Amino acid sequence: EKGGYDSFMEKEINEQPKAVEDTLLGRTDAQGRLTLDELRISPEQLKETSKIIVLACGTAAYAGTVAKYAIEHWTRIPVEVELAHEFRYRDPIIDQTTLVVSISQSGETMDTLMAVRYAKEQGARTLSICNTNGSTIPRESDAVLYLHAGPEIAVASTKAFLAMITASYLLGLYLAQLRGQLFSGQISDILADLHKIPAKIQTILDGAEPIKALARDMAQTPSVLFLGRHVGFPVAMEGALKLKELAYIHAEGFAAGELKHGPIALIEEGQPVFVVVPSPRGRDSLHSKVVSNIQEVRARGAKTITVAEQGDAAVTEYSENVFFVPETQPLLMPLLTTVPLQIFACALATEKGYDVDQPRNLAKSVTVE
Ligand code: M6R
Q: How is this protein annotated for GO cellular component (predicted)?
């Protein structure tokens, strides 16, 4: 049942090309227009959306942060992302034109469910991005966008994370299409690039050995830091979470821009720092600022490990190890840059002899608040 792999986690990491493909499957009509037919909110209602609030926990919340960058960019609708368990305790401002998007693999996370119920009571329209057909959160929501990623067994979420990000892109593009915010040619270009992602993930999986070798070498490391910026920020957070849950190593993710506001004080000789580098073809200055961050931590003795776009010559000089990922649009990069971090955490925990499918103290779905 593990399909020849040592763990469900390894199997699910390797299923990611298919998970992304299946999330994309059947979402366009003959004219190439997006059709999200499980949406039981009318196009007119969706068009009125004045604000989106994304609610989720853990890895799903990091997918929500990626969603924020993409949806705001494509639709110009303001998007807030909030940990579901914080949401209803702050008296949030919600009305009929607020679209609350919950993201949950299991569809049973109690914190997320209670936040969705609260949002509904306050009059918001609710849409669930979920992997588990017929689970509670989608049943209680006005609309559902299923991931179709197949069952995820390992406690640590991997393929569902990539599928959640993919589904969020589809939602963003759908809203942009409805509101006439992007030309149909722009939407089909982005969709075409999304359809190329599975093969690119496969390339990373096929070249995973050096990442695993590094993980084996680093099995004794007591702490690892992760830096990212823009959509690389939630990827850094996710890389850190994977390492905490699986390898029980102290790991921390930061927005690279925060470094000089405090975290750089942590850097001492030999401290491993992963840096998720934005595309050099993206927004000017973003890439060069992150390259400066790599130099800054390296100058203070950090062991720098970078995840960068293929051909990004600027990072090589300042990196102890570089893992390249294929090119794609800057906003789509998390679908690629996450993968080396998942492989790293899984391999390191395996090297330490831990059960990667059932990490201590954790449950696959958290059904208590
Ligand atoms: O089922 P959900 O997506 O609602 O679960 C949310 C979190 O509990 C989950 O992502 C958790 O953080 C995972 N252990 C991450 O690997």
A: cytosol
